[in-house]
């Protein structure tokens, strides 16, 4: 896929947003612009769409397989600071899409890895970008106002039994995260219905919801070894849509470490759908 560009913008504070799928790249762009940055959006396609185009000062797309091309583009645009925002499903590695043709840089990177876990791949990508003069910031540097607060965020509160499910599932979710498998689990009546793996959060929620029947509890946490430069847990409108379709009724997220995209609108949607949302802190769960 060829590079596509809009306008080249010059500015002293320039931030590249390397965008995957979802609404997080746009949210980061808004916050970065408030902080005085000129935002250069680079959408990895697939899976990213063009939504960043309408917020960024300059916008480009590049095939996700062109890692060498991405480095060249960032150098051409004089981008020395960047943020990685939005999910890039690892399943793309196994789908054999004809429009994803890895360049030599991408091939070399993949063959250099000890394994293909999320953290291994992303850490290698970050290392290579930084070797080429691009500092990758923590995503949370531009999303502090979007981090989940502690406590019940919706008008509906979890029941005592649902809080027990949260407590039961939390440590399991942390162990799954520690193994770099996923960050989300679905629980009902102290039984695990689904564990997020390569398919991603939304599909895990739907699969767990089908098995639970209804009234499942969804728990999303950060990994114990979470690198805040990539794969930071986030929830948004798609999360609520998946929960509504599967009739899941509670969403527990890690306070201070999980991003809520468009928080006010998110809470309104959750209230309308009858979903309770609660921010939890691990240290307080341990004391219970």
Model description:
The strands form three sheets. This protein has a six-stranded mixed sheet with strand order 1-4-3-2-5-6, with helices on both faces. Strands 7-14-12-10-8-9 form a six-stranded mixed sheet. The chain has 288 residues and is an alpha/beta fold. The chain starts with a strand and ends with a helix. The longest helix has 19 residues. It is built from nine helices and 14 strands. Helix content is 35%, strand content 20%.
In short:
This protein has nine helices and 14 strands. With 288 residues, the chain is α/β, with parallel strands linked by helices.
List the helices and strands and how they pair.
Layout: E1 4-5, E2 14-19, H1 24-34, E3 38-45, E4 58-63, H2 67-76, E5 81-85, H3 104-112, H4 118-131, E6 135-136, E7 151-152, H5 160-178, E8 184-188, E9 191-195, H6 201-212, E10 217-220, E11 234-235, H7 237-246, E12 250-254, E13 259-260, H8 263-273, E14 276-280, H9 282-287
Parallel strand pairs: 2-3, 2-5, 3-4, 5-6, 10-12, 11-13, 12-14
Antiparallel strand pairs: 1-4, 7-14, 8-9, 8-10
């Amino acid at each position: 896929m060829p590079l596509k560009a809009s306008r080249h913008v010059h500015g002293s504070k320039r931030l590249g947003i390397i965008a995957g799928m979802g609404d997080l790249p746009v949210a980061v762009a808004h916050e970065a612009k408030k902080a005085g940055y000129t935002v250069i959006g680079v959408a990895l396609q697939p899976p990213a769409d063009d939504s960043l185009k309408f917020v960024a000062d300059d916008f480009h797309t590049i095939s996700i397989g062109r890692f060498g091309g991405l480095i060249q583009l960032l150098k051409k645009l004089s981008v020395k600071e960047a943020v990685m925002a939005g999910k890039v499903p690892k399943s793309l590695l196994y789908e054999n899409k004809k429009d994803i043709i890895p360049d030599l840089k991408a091939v070399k990177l993949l063959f250099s890895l000890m394994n293909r876990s999320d953290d291994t791949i992303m850490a290698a990508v970050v290392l290579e970008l930084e070797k080429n003069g691009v500092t990758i910031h923590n995503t949370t540097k531009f999303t502090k106002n979007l981090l989940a607060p502690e406590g019940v965020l919706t008008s509906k509160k979890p029941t005592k039994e649902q809080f027990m499910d949260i407590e039961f599932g939390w440590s399991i979710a942390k162990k799954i995260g520690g193994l770099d498998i996923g960050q989300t689990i679905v629980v009902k009546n102290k039984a695990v219905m689904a564990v997020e793996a390569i398919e991603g959060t939304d599909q895990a929620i739907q699969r767990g919801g089908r098995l639970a029947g209804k009234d499942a509890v969804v728990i999303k946490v950060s990994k114990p070894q979470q690198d805040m430069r990539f794969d930071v847990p986030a929830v948004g409108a798609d999360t609520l849509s998946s929960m509504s379709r599967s009739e899941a009724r509670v969403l527990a997220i890690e306070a201070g470490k999980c991003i809520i995209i468009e928080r006010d609108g998110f809470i309104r949607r959750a209230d309308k759908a009858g979903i309770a949302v609660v921010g939890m802190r691990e240290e307080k769960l341990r004391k219970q």
